[in-house]
Amino acid sequence: MSILNKVAAALFAAFALVASPAFADGIQSGPVSLKASQSTAASVGSCTGLGTGGTCALASGSTDSVGNIVLTTGTSPSNSGSLTLTFSAAIGPNGASCIFSPTTHGGSWNTPVGLVRTSLVTTSVSLFWANNGVNLTGSSSVNLDYVCFGF
Question: What is the pTM of this model?
Answer without folding.
Answer: 0.75
